[in-house]
Design brief:
transmembrane; membrane; globular; transmembrane helix; mainly alpha
């Protein structure tokens, strides 16, 4: 088989994989949207930097949708994810050679975890997992230079898609490096220092590249204009803001928030988005940014708040780790909603499809899916524990153990970042939680047959000399 025909065959299977990964969108009848999708579509249509999120996903929508169809946007997401998953099978489950078997494994993780419901959204959430997969392939495999450059580009793209990804990827790289150093993974060449440093530099570079991109597009040199408002909302939910205002509201140090110190919202979402919240009654995030930045700075410089901050961060992280359900935010967005208006602006000829989708007819039900997802995640954790801590540990390649380490570090880092700095939401954790079941499936595909009586007999047969085998 020539190189060209092999490439064409691989592309065919990847296209099928992409269709599997956007099957939720196909089932829905249109790409899925949330309340935030309209903001991203607006940045694609008008090339403006949103106040509360990066412009990068808007550029992705503009480039992949070709300003004609939103189906191409999620198909491009599916194709990118399929390529990374396919490469993971090649690296971590090489025994699975036949393309149909690989596609079946990809379909299996889609059915078990519901990842398609994230891949099919007009949202950047799927890029958190995309970046983690690229990171795993970079750290655990010595790739040729073209592949390494491509994976680094994917990692950087994923980091720029959402401001939380910048910190999540940085914590993941640092966490993997710390464990790798302590467990001797660098010494045993499971992790390579040069590649680890390169990924660290790329993740750090994103912190400068994103503000530069925003400045170039007229949005100012900053990650997000609303970051102080999000942090203040989190401080309000945790009780830190109330404690601060009680200590500092007086004739010598007045803040506009002081008049709300006895009626702060119970949760961060209400603080950010409710029309009657302190934030919105005092002019929004731009009007309050100087005051919020001053309060946040004082809190961070005051050790007396540290025990409460640490306690709330640990508690939010643990809560976030359990929030892996689907359907969060996937309600109907019909006439007079931001997604409706922006879909009409970007792809007016698809507005009828959008309105007749199952989502906009309120016909999506996630109860059965969520029950299956919770069961799949629990089973995956039990299986991974048995594989890595049981008598079969010595048979598993160090790179496969490293894959579990990278995925686990990313899942915890994502929970820490989103839970501590934003909100505890199913959507924010579900976007990466499926990576551990995926790692579990790869290990089973590669190693499970070896432990069965049939597998042992097959291996013994394979080890016989060719001449003996022919005599049989």
């Amino acid at each position: 088989m020539t190189l060209l025909s092999r490439a064409g065959r691989t592309l065919f299977w990847l296209l099928l994989g992409a269709l599997v990964l956007i099957s939720a969108g196909l089932y829905n009848g249109f790409p899925l949207v949330t309340s935030d999708s309209g903001t991203y579509l607006n940045s694609a249509v008008n090339l403006t930097v949103p106040d509360d999120r990066p412009v990068t996903y808007g550029l992705w929508v503009l480039l992949t949708g070709l300003r004609g169809t939103l189906w191409l946007v999620i198909f491009a997401q599916g194709l990118l994810l399929a390529g990374l998953l396919w490469r993971c099978i090649t690296v971590f489950a090489p025994r699975l050679q036949h393309p149909a078997a690989r596609l079946a494994l990809l379909a299996g993780v889609t059915w078990l975890t519901g990842v398609s419901w994230y891949c099919s959204q007009l949202m950047p959430d799927i890029f958190t997992a995309v970046g983690v997969l690229a990171l795993a392939l970079l750290l655990l495999k010595r790739s040729a230079l073209p592949e390494q450059v491509l994976l680094l580009a994917v990692l950087l793209l994923a980091a720029l898609m959402h401001s939380s990804n910048l910190l999540t990827f940085l914590l993941t790289v640092l966490g993997v490096g710390a464990v790798g150093w302590q467990q001797g993974l660098f010494r045993r060449q499971v992790l390579h220092r040069s590649t680890w440093l390169l990924t660290l530099l790329v993740t750090l570079a994103g912190w400068g590249i994103l503000p530069l991109l925003h400045a170039r597009m007229g949005g100012g040199f900053e990650l997000s204009k609303a970051s102080s408002a999000f942090l203040m909302a989190r401080l309000s939910e945790s009780g830190v803001l109330e404690k601060f205002l009680q200590a500092n509201c007086g004739p010598q140090n007045q803040y506009r928030l002081c008049e709300f110190r006895d009626k702060l919202p119970n949760d961060a979402i209400t603080f950010m988005w409710d029309a009657n919240s302190p934030l919105n009654q005092t002019g929004g995030w731009n009007a309050n940014r100087p005051e919020y930045q001053q309060i946040i700075g004082q809190v961070l410089r005051s050790p007396r708040y540290y025990p409460l901050l640490v306690s709330e961060s640990v508690q939010a992280t643990l809560r976030q780790l359990t929030h892996i359900g689907h359907g969060d935010g996937l309600t109907a967005f019909r006439e007079n909603t931001n997604p409706y208006w922006k879909v009409g602006e970007y792809a007016p000829y698809e507005l009828k499809e959008y309105m007749s989708s199952m989502q906009n007819r309120s016909q999506l039900d996630f109860k059965d899916l969520n029950e299956r997802v919770y069961g799949a995640h629990l089973l995956a954790l039990l299986v991974l524990g048995a594989l890595l801590l049981g008598p079969w540990r010595a048979r598993i390649a160090p790179a496969a153990v490293g894959l579990v380490l990278v995925c686990g570090a990313a899942v915890v880092s994502n929970a820490l970042v989103t839970g501590s700095l934003a909100n505890v939401l199913d959507r924010l954790q579900g976007r990466v939680a499926w990576l551990l079941p995926w790692a579990c499936l790869l290990l089973l595909a590669q190693y499970l047959p070896r432990w069965t009586p049939w597998g042992a007999q097959l291996l013994a047969r394979d080890e016989q000399p060719q001449q003996t085998r022919m005599q049989e």
